[in-house]
Design goal:
By secondary structure, this protein is of the alpha+beta class. The protein has 5 helices and 8 strands. Strand 4 and strand 5 form a beta hairpin. Helix content is 39%, strand content 37%. The longest helix is centred in the C-terminal third of the chain and has 27 residues. The chain has a single domain, classed as Jelly Rolls (Sandwich), CATH 2.60.120.10. It is globular and about 50 Å long. This is Cyclic nucleotide-binding domain-containing protein. Pfam families: cNMP_binding (PF00027).
Protein backbone atom coordinates (compact mmCIF):
# COMPACT_ATOMS: atom_id res chain seq x y z
CA UNK A 1 0.00 0.00 0.00
CA UNK A 2 1.42 3.35 -1.07
CA UNK A 3 0.84 6.80 0.42
CA UNK A 4 -2.04 7.65 -1.99
CA UNK A 5 -3.73 4.39 -0.91
CA UNK A 6 -3.24 5.37 2.74
CA UNK A 7 -4.90 8.73 2.08
CA UNK A 8 -7.81 7.07 0.23
CA UNK A 9 -8.33 4.56 3.05
CA UNK A 10 -8.16 7.25 5.73
CA UNK A 11 -10.56 9.50 3.83
CA UNK A 12 -13.08 6.72 3.29
CA UNK A 13 -13.25 5.56 6.91
CA UNK A 14 -16.07 6.85 9.08
CA UNK A 15 -13.69 7.92 11.82
CA UNK A 16 -12.16 10.69 9.69
CA UNK A 17 -15.37 11.73 7.93
CA UNK A 18 -15.16 15.36 6.74
CA UNK A 19 -11.44 15.75 7.45
CA UNK A 20 -9.78 18.55 5.50
CA UNK A 21 -7.39 17.61 2.67
CA UNK A 22 -4.52 19.38 4.47
CA UNK A 23 -5.06 17.43 7.70
CA UNK A 24 -5.48 14.21 5.75
CA UNK A 25 -2.10 14.82 4.14
CA UNK A 26 -0.53 15.57 7.54
CA UNK A 27 -1.89 12.40 9.14
CA UNK A 28 -0.97 10.14 6.23
CA UNK A 29 2.67 11.22 6.60
CA UNK A 30 2.97 9.47 9.98
CA UNK A 31 1.07 6.29 9.22
CA UNK A 32 2.51 2.80 8.83
CA UNK A 33 0.99 -0.24 7.15
CA UNK A 34 0.89 -3.48 9.13
CA UNK A 35 -0.02 -6.92 7.75
CA UNK A 36 -1.52 -9.64 9.96
CA UNK A 37 -2.38 -13.23 9.17
CA UNK A 38 -5.64 -14.78 10.31
CA UNK A 39 -5.32 -15.65 14.01
CA UNK A 40 -2.70 -12.97 14.74
CA UNK A 41 -3.31 -10.16 17.21
CA UNK A 42 -2.92 -6.48 16.40
CA UNK A 43 -2.68 -5.92 20.15
CA UNK A 44 -3.48 -7.85 23.30
CA UNK A 45 -5.35 -6.95 26.45
CA UNK A 46 -2.84 -5.88 29.09
CA UNK A 47 -0.27 -4.54 26.60
CA UNK A 48 0.58 -0.84 26.56
CA UNK A 49 -1.06 1.00 23.70
CA UNK A 50 -0.29 4.32 22.10
CA UNK A 51 -1.55 4.18 18.51
CA UNK A 52 -4.78 4.24 16.52
CA UNK A 53 -5.51 1.56 13.93
CA UNK A 54 -7.77 1.69 10.88
CA UNK A 55 -8.61 -1.55 9.11
CA UNK A 56 -7.76 -1.14 5.42
CA UNK A 57 -8.76 -4.72 4.65
CA UNK A 58 -9.72 -7.72 6.76
CA UNK A 59 -11.90 -8.60 9.70
CA UNK A 60 -11.01 -8.19 13.38
CA UNK A 61 -12.71 -9.27 16.60
CA UNK A 62 -12.29 -6.87 19.49
CA UNK A 63 -12.47 -9.15 22.52
CA UNK A 64 -12.02 -8.99 26.26
CA UNK A 65 -10.87 -11.76 28.55
CA UNK A 66 -13.29 -12.28 31.43
CA UNK A 67 -12.83 -13.92 34.82
CA UNK A 68 -16.10 -13.84 36.76
CA UNK A 69 -15.80 -16.43 39.51
CA UNK A 70 -16.17 -19.82 37.88
CA UNK A 71 -16.80 -18.27 34.45
CA UNK A 72 -13.59 -17.66 32.50
CA UNK A 73 -13.17 -16.98 28.84
CA UNK A 74 -13.49 -14.11 26.44
CA UNK A 75 -16.35 -12.12 25.00
CA UNK A 76 -16.40 -10.45 21.60
CA UNK A 77 -17.07 -6.76 22.11
CA UNK A 78 -17.29 -5.93 18.43
CA UNK A 79 -16.59 -7.37 14.99
CA UNK A 80 -14.79 -4.80 12.84
CA UNK A 81 -14.24 -4.73 9.09
CA UNK A 82 -12.81 -2.41 6.48
CA UNK A 83 -12.77 1.25 7.50
CA UNK A 84 -13.32 0.66 11.21
CA UNK A 85 -11.04 2.14 13.89
CA UNK A 86 -9.37 0.68 17.00
CA UNK A 87 -7.66 2.44 19.91
CA UNK A 88 -7.71 6.04 21.11
CA UNK A 89 -7.06 6.52 24.84
CA UNK A 90 -3.39 7.40 24.53
CA UNK A 91 -4.12 10.01 21.88
CA UNK A 92 -6.67 11.62 24.18
CA UNK A 93 -4.59 11.39 27.34
CA UNK A 94 -1.10 11.89 25.92
CA UNK A 95 0.37 8.79 27.52
CA UNK A 96 0.46 5.05 26.85
CA UNK A 97 -2.20 3.09 28.65
CA UNK A 98 -2.94 -0.53 29.44
CA UNK A 99 -5.18 -1.93 26.72
CA UNK A 100 -8.55 -3.18 27.96
CA UNK A 101 -9.17 -5.59 25.07
CA UNK A 102 -7.46 -7.62 22.35
CA UNK A 103 -7.78 -7.24 18.59
CA UNK A 104 -7.74 -10.69 16.95
CA UNK A 105 -7.65 -10.92 13.13
CA UNK A 106 -10.27 -13.34 11.88
CA UNK A 107 -8.80 -13.30 8.37
CA UNK A 108 -5.68 -11.85 6.77
CA UNK A 109 -5.80 -8.13 7.50
CA UNK A 110 -4.08 -4.92 6.45
CA UNK A 111 -4.14 -2.19 9.07
CA UNK A 112 -3.06 1.43 8.96
CA UNK A 113 -1.29 2.40 12.18
CA UNK A 114 -1.59 6.10 13.10
CA UNK A 115 1.07 7.14 15.57
CA UNK A 116 -0.93 8.48 18.53
CA UNK A 117 1.79 10.77 19.87
CA UNK A 118 2.20 12.50 16.51
CA UNK A 119 -1.55 12.84 16.07
CA UNK A 120 -1.82 14.39 19.53
CA UNK A 121 0.99 16.83 18.70
CA UNK A 122 -0.97 17.97 15.62
CA UNK A 123 -4.10 18.30 17.76
CA UNK A 124 -2.29 20.54 20.25
CA UNK A 125 -0.70 22.72 17.57
CA UNK A 126 -3.91 23.31 15.59
CA UNK A 127 -6.92 24.01 17.84
CA UNK A 128 -9.67 23.58 15.21
CA UNK A 129 -8.12 20.29 14.09
CA UNK A 130 -7.69 19.29 17.73
CA UNK A 131 -11.38 19.88 18.37
CA UNK A 132 -12.31 17.92 15.24
CA UNK A 133 -10.20 14.96 16.40
CA UNK A 134 -11.46 15.21 19.98
CA UNK A 135 -15.00 14.95 18.67
CA UNK A 136 -14.12 11.97 16.46
CA UNK A 137 -12.35 10.20 19.35
CA UNK A 138 -15.35 10.85 21.60
CA UNK A 139 -17.70 9.24 19.07
CA UNK A 140 -15.32 6.27 18.85
CA UNK A 141 -15.33 5.91 22.64
CA UNK A 142 -19.12 6.09 22.75
CA UNK A 143 -19.36 3.40 20.09
CA UNK A 144 -16.93 1.16 21.97
CA UNK A 145 -18.67 1.62 25.33
CA UNK A 146 -22.03 0.79 23.77
CA UNK A 147 -20.53 -2.35 22.20
CA UNK A 148 -18.99 -3.39 25.53
CA UNK A 149 -22.31 -3.00 27.34
CA UNK A 150 -23.99 -5.03 24.61
CA UNK A 151 -21.37 -7.77 25.01
CA UNK A 152 -21.91 -7.82 28.80
CA UNK A 153 -25.62 -8.40 28.24
CA UNK A 154 -24.71 -11.69 26.52
CA UNK A 155 -22.77 -13.03 29.52
Amino acid sequence: MQNPDIRDTLQSCGFLKNISPAHLETISAFCDIDQYAAGEYIFRQGDFGDDLFIIADGYVFLERAMDIGSHKGSVVIDALGKGRTLGCWSTLLGEPHVLMSSANCQKDSTVIRIKGSQLRKCMLEDTPFGFFMLERLSFLLRERIQAAYGAMDKI
